[in-house]
Amino acid sequence: MSNGAFRLLKPSDADQALVLYNELTVGPPAESTAGFSVVLDHPGTQVLGVFAGADLAAMVTLHLLPNVLWNGRPYGLIENVVTRASHQRRGFGRQVMQGAIDAAWAANAYKIMLMTGQGRGATGFYESLGFSSKDKFAMVMRRD
Prior knowledge:
Elements: E1 5-8, H1 14-24, H2 33-41, E2 45-52, E3 55-66, E4 74-83, H3 92-106, E5 112-114, H4 123-128
Parallel strand pairs: 4-5
Antiparallel strand pairs: 1-2, 2-3, 3-4
């Protein structure tokens, strides 16, 4: 297992982030560095990354959203978890996820949620980090 340099991503990381987004998605390609900046500038949103040398090896987006039922405490929503194919199975995904979990708890989140594609085979990875599908049932509505 490798330990890379962990940090918040910034606009200068956009080109490498787009490479990872395009390894992740089955939808339209990520082409806009401006779109990456919109995500980085969104209040309550962080994109965290782990670097192997100069390469962005893994990244995750964490949204912190307040909930009135918890007196405004946020919950965390994790999106776009991806490890560059050339760096998989070396601990970078686990490291970036642990960083997102730590950031959510540091923000006093009362829970962290994520969804993963049914065909991606990542359920065991998320369960090994402490996530469970016992409490919630995810549903999605898409508009293309």
